[in-house]
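Hi X.,

You mentioned you wanted examples for the new student's onboarding notes, showing what a folding record looks like when two proteins sit in one file. Here is a clean example. The first protein comes first, with its sequence line followed by its structure tokens.
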Amino acid sequence: MIIKKFMLVSLFRQKAEALLWLGVLISMILSHPVMEGHLTLCPLALAGFHWCPGCGVGRSMILALHGQVNASIMMHPLGLPAIAVLSERIYELFSPLNIH
């Protein structure tokens, strides 16, 4: 009984994570690719620093999802790989063979 409950909780967490990442990608698709004064969650930017190695990844992903691949690569070279990683993670979590 305890093992069955644990498996249900684990399955719920997997699907919740998959839905979270899917929601992130959908929100990026629905976002406007060029925004001034965008919201940031970057702790370095919030602390007043003007440079962060990860800044631009989100905007790069948005540009790529809107078909602007060259602009995406110029914004940040890790935008396209980030989309691939998130897509693979979503697929893995929704896969019926992924039961822990």
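Then the second protein repeats the pattern, sequence line and then tokens:
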Amino acid sequence: MARLILDAGALIAGEARDRRAWGIKRDAHMRGVDVVVPAPVLAQLLRQPAVQAQLARFLAGTSTLPFTEESARRAGLLLASTGTRDVVDASVAVAARDGDAVVTSDRDDIRALTDAAGLSVVVIPV
């Protein structure tokens, strides 16, 4: 796997101390895989940093991927082509590259979006 991308469902699971989510992230780090979070995913989940200590711990060692105007345009086109509506899910698909793995609770939409983008990614449910 090239990179491990965490979507909102992965962050929710991590914040809830879900052992599977923590294990997937830990295993990726141990194998030297970059663990990344698209900026819109972070925006969706980061609401009260002062009380989200568990989320902060889960995010430790991850990198945030920017969401540019070009990314926004690509996300909009993917949403239109798939008939899906979640901009955050589309941001995950736009951030993905062939060989990446995506940790998600929204497996069907992520698969539809990455397929529409012509990407070969591994979708890991949490």
